[in-house]
Amino acid sequence: MTLSPTTRSTLGRKSDRAATDRADLHAVLDAGLACHVGFVRDGAPVVLPTAYGRDGEQLYLHGSTGARWLAGAELPVCVTVTHLDGIVHARSVMHFSMNYRSAVVHGTARRVTDAGERLHALRTIVEHLTPGAWDHARRPDRRELAATAVLALDLTEASVKSRSGPPSDDDADVAADLAWAGVVPVATVLGEPEPGPDLPEHHTVPDHLVSRVHREG
Amino acid sequence: MTLSPTTRSTLGRKSDRAATDRADLHAVLDAGLACHVGFVRDGAPVVLPTAYGRDGEQLYLHGSTGARWLAGAELPVCVTVTHLDGIVHARSVMHFSMNYRSAVVHGTARRVTDAGERLHALRTIVEHLTPGAWDHARRPDRRELAATAVLALDLTEASVKSRSGPPSDDDADVAADLAWAGVVPVATVLGEPEPGPDLPEHHTVPDHLVSRVHREG
Predict the structure, then answer these.
(1) Disruptive mutation site among B82, B93, B156 for chain A (greatest number of A CBs within 10 Å)
(2) How do residues A126-180 score in pLDDT, each as one tens digit?
(3) CATH: 2.30.110.10, 1.20.120.80, 2.10.109.10, 2.60.120.620. Which one for A7-186?
(4) Chain A residues near residue B167 by CB distance under 8 angstroms
(5) Which helix (H) or strand (E) holds A144?
(6) Shortest Cα distance, chain B CAs vs residue A212, angstroms
């Protein structure tokens, strides 16, 4: 299935930066820690950072039932996940840029009400944040579940955009040798796990955390 | 001046996570590389990552005049900058969380038309991305300026929210010693500058880049 089935998810500019493969969309989403969810309230846009998780072609979001934006049964949203990969230094100020990968998903999120799907969604979100964690922690109880709203968003309508590589300078600026030009890499890294102050000393850092820090950090 | 002069920027939930000092807002904005700008198109929300810069109580955005979202003289927006600081591992899945700092700015961005302010805005954006760069690169020419749209947004209406520290587990879960609990730090780091493939060998990495990588990286 190709991405971008509608005009709003078809990139108007720099379409050479667009990916059309669904695997690219999944890769960008899976590599992120938090997304930015946009919605309309009282006619004006609102953008909030939040956790998320993906299962197949569904994106799950969650939050407190007390959060105003999670109150309805349906919510038109735009969910964007962005990775910054580098600061691009050019010979001219207008060619300064960033290397990045971003996914933009448009759609109407539906409130998940089925108990089984709600639990699956919460597991998906926690496992996205920290793979392997769900099986080591207490599951949600009835009170916690009642206080939690879960939204699901189909990945039907989405676009992926990225930039990589060195600056794209004008030939004349390269020839004039005006300035240093290149890329300063940017990365999101995980540090060494810090045990909580009330954690008994017999605990060691669990394997699923050790391997992740050493792989991604 | 306090933040949050309107109901939409007054936090409804977890107001203990809200900062009310304008210096906190500036600090979160100044520490970011990219923002997520939200706007409404055809009644639906759109969220895009983009560069920005701050000068006093003004936030500047820019883009190609060919970008659809930059076409009007005024645009109601929400600009959000988020820093992820840690993945919070709790004894129960519903207390998993993230440590973060985020700033959310609401308002109507105005198209900047004055030539002097436009140049100042572009300088502010480039210097935000990479301090010290503006003076080393070619300034925009008439053609480049004509192809560039600049927006300004007052920082009047904004909120700042953050979480830090260890997990907030239920007492019973702590007593039951259910799982490892603590924080995996998350950081955005800058790597060693990578010269472009067509950069003459006589260039060394400029001082403003060396000092930044070693300070932030």
Answers:
(1) B93
(2) 999 999 999 989 999 999 999 999 999 999 999 999 999 999 999 999 999 989 9
(3) 2.30.110.10
(4) 196
(5) helix A142-146
(6) 10
